[in-house]
Amino acid sequence: MRRAPRSLPDTAAPRKRRVPGARWIRPVAPAPPAAGAWPASAAPPAGSPPAGVSRVADLSLLPQLLVNGLVIGSILAIAGIGLSLVYGILKLANFAHGDLVILGAFLAFLFAVPLSGALEASGAAVGASLLAFLLLDLLWLKRLGLGERLVLLALGAPLVALGAFLVAGGRGGTGTTDLVLVQVTLLSAVFSVAALLAMDRLMWRPLRRKQATLLSLVIVSIGVSLVVRNGLQMAFGTGNRSFDRPTAVSPEVFGVLISEAQQAALVATVVVFLAVHLFLSRTRTGKAMRAMADNLELARISGVDVNREVMHVWVLCGLLTALSGVLLALINNNVMHVNMGLALLLPLFASVILGGIGSPYGAMAGGFVVGIAMKTAGLWIGTRYEVAAALIVLIAVLLLRPQGIFGGRVA
């Protein structure tokens, strides 16, 4: 019987091989891997802990991730208030909201770009006049006379022009300082409000009068999103844009690194929450908005000027989108991109639905829950799937409480 060839064990020395034109040599066997190291043929996958360190050691990053989640949640909460109010009062699921947030950031960047003094002065004067006329026509066309409108124009146009001149003088070619950043944020808020009011006059109000269906409104909002995004690409290109600011230094607070931009985002969130709460609970306009969210027809019969309150909703939404856009760029190392609005859309809707769609307080709570879920999920499933983790949390909460955390209540 023919015997099978005997195979060498893994530990046997390799066979000699003949190199043409040279003497016999013995190949050098690779050195065995060090204790705890990864073999060359089995490299560690991306995101794996170092050799000898277990996944449990990553929990030391949990405090830092919680702070990062609070910061992202604050951006989602500020932007989600406007989205929730628009849906609660107008029954409009605005899929352009994420792009409107980034529009606010790019408007601030536009004002922060160094321009010549003469060009900025003339542009500020013309822009202030046009903006004042637009706001007056949209807000008070049927409520004020010609003389009152001229008085307000005489008072408002110089104030807007003064803000533009302060930006020109405060910048001085030295970059976007903190003072200039506040000024360009205010200017971005003014122009964001003007853009939203113009959209309401040209699109949303005619659609409301024709009693357009919810599906029609959604399709129109998707079209607005594409128009805004493509317009930003045409104006600013597809690359990254950034404020001319130094790299943020992150001081350590109780063992957690938190930059000045993150601190500003958290402080701004607290101020916005208090202001929105006082506005909705103490002012006549806020109470009228809550009445319209509960029952629009009953509020109309009770004497609420629906068109006027709808304008107030868009004004508040424009202010919040501009602020959240600038803060989002700041916490992203002063960098903005035209596709950031699309990436923000799913977490934004998840936070609003999680908190109870139509409830601004629910948007605040849902924003923090989604932000923390997104950042802490990186400990187990990686940062690539943080949006999926937020949606999983959304599904789990809705299975237990289908109406959301606050149940869709406005008050």
Q: Which characteristics define this entry?
A:
mainly alpha, 13 helices, 411 residues, 2% strand, two-stranded antiparallel ribbon, single chain, 4 strands
Spell out the blueprint of helices and strands.
Blueprint: H1 62-90, H2 97-112, H3 117-140, H4 146-171, H5 178-209, H6 214-236, E1 241-242, E2 252-253, E3 256-257, H7 260-282, H8 284-294, H9 296-301, H10 306-331, E4 335-336, H11 340-355, H12 360-376, H13 386-400
Antiparallel strand pairs: 1-4, 2-3
Largest sheet: 2 strands, antiparallel
Strand order of the largest sheet: 1-4
Q: Which range does the strand content fall in?
A: under 5%
How does the overall form come out from the CA principal axes? globular
Beta strands, count: 4
- Quick check: average pLDDT? 75
Count the helices. How many? 13
The share of residues in helices is 55-70%
Describe the 3D structure:
- It is a single chain.
- The protein has 411 residues and is an all-alpha fold.
- It has a domain at 60-107 and 203-245 and 254-400.
- Helix content is 64%, strand content 2%.
- It contains 13 helices and four strands.
- It has a two-stranded antiparallel ribbon with strand order 1-4.
- A hairpin with a 2-residue loop joins strand 2 and strand 3 (256-257).
- Helix 11 (340-355) runs parallel beside helix 13 (386-400).
- It is globular, with a radius of gyration of 29 Å.
- The protein starts with 61 loop residues before the first helix and ends in an 11-residue tail after the last helix.
